[in-house]
TrEMBL record:
Keywords: Hydrolase, Membrane, Metal-binding, Metalloprotease, Protease, Transmembrane, Transmembrane helix, Zinc
Family, similarity comment: In the C-terminal section; belongs to the peptidase M41 family.
Name listed for the protein in its UniProt record: AAA family ATPase
Native organism: Sporosarcina koreensis
Full protein: residues contained: 137 to 405 of 581
Domain of life of the organism encoding this protein: Bacteria
Signal peptide: none
Domain AAA+ ATPase span(s) in chain numbering: 50-186
Length: 269
């Protein structure tokens, strides 16, 4: 099957604590949601339904995939991960049959999380989406999401950078019960993410001392960009035979990230 859309994906060792910069209320809401999923009987007693679907939306590289992985790990679920584009096909019925197979496989390995990144490619507004094939694929997704008891122990998580593109029918409660905005991190969030990505790396004293300033001066950077800063700096240090990441390595990595982005400048702290 194209892009392994129906196979379980190994989960990295990740918890919610490995994701920096998430707003406090959001973390709290996620914890609450997880406790409902973990103890659905108790939730039913107090009149709450376990969620079936969660939508994560926000700019690229803010940790939506990490979040889906951490949720799956937290509830001990098998993880089925694919991208919306893996379901877009020229031949009518192929995408729909992939959606069906994905859900069928997940139902054999409950509890399971089905994660679809770039879900806009699969669940985009119907009139703009166009085409019989994509219409059929979306209809099949809606049918599978409405699977009733068949979906017990299945949590669907979708991620997108373009929430505005999604079809209303897809977003209906019962299909998507919770929607979380995963924003670009603020200064405090960037500092948390820097901590996460420097853990286990050796840094020169002056680099350690400059991390607060780095957090302040990297407004607009995503978690992925901050992570790649230290990855690039680390590689350069190793290449040059240095044990610790030095200021030159970090400056080099910052320049690279800024050059790689069309809209990025380092702002004055
Ligand atoms: P996209 O929208 O492009 O699919 P995404 O929001 O799903 O991106 P991830 O794939 O979760 O982003 O992030 C990519 C990598 O960036 C992660 O593996 C991690 O190393 C780093 N990263 C991103 N966000 C965070 C964060 N909030 N905290 C820590 N690391 C992060």
């Amino acid at each position: 099957m194209k892009n392994g859309t129906s196979k379980a994906t190994p989960l990295p060792e990740i918890t919610l604590d490995d994701i920096g910069g998430l707003p406090e209320e959001m973390k709290e809401e996620i914890h609450q949601t997880l406790s409902i999923i973990k103890d659905p009987k108790r939730a039913t007693q107090v009149g709450i339904q376990a969620p079936k679907g969660i939508l994560l939306y926000g700019p690229p590289g803010t940790g939506k995939t990490l979040l889906a992985q951490a949720i799956a790990r937290e509830i001990g679920a098998t993880f089925y991960s694919s991208s919306g584009s893996a379901f877009t096909e020229l031949f009518v019925g192929v995408g729909a049959s992939r959606v069906r197979t994905l859900f069928q496989n997940a139902r054999k390995h409950r509890p399971a999380v089905i994660f679809i990144d770039e879900v806009d490619a699969l669940a985009g507004k119907r009139k703009e989406h166009g085409g019989e094939e994509s219409e059929k694929t979306l209809t099949e997704l809606l049918v599978q999401l409405d699977g009733g008891n068949d979906n017990e122990g299945i949590l669907f998580i979708a991620a997108t950078n373009r929430k505005d593109m999604l079809d209303e029918a897809f977003l209906r409660p019962g299909r998507i019960d919770y929607t979380f905005n995963v924003p670009l991190p603020d200064t405090h969030g960037r500092r948390e993410i820097i901590d996460i990505h420097t853990k286990g790396r050796l840094l020169a004293e002056e680099v350690y001392a400059s991390l607060d300033v780095l957090a302040e001066s990297t407004s607009g950077f995503s978690g992925a960009e901050l992570g790649s800063l230290f990855e690039t700096a680390s590689k350069r240090a190793i290449r040059d035979g240095r044990e610790k990441i030095g200021k030159g390595d970090l400056d080099f990595a910052i320049d690279r990230t800024i050059l790689g982005s069309t809209s990025r400048t380092l702002n004055d702290p």
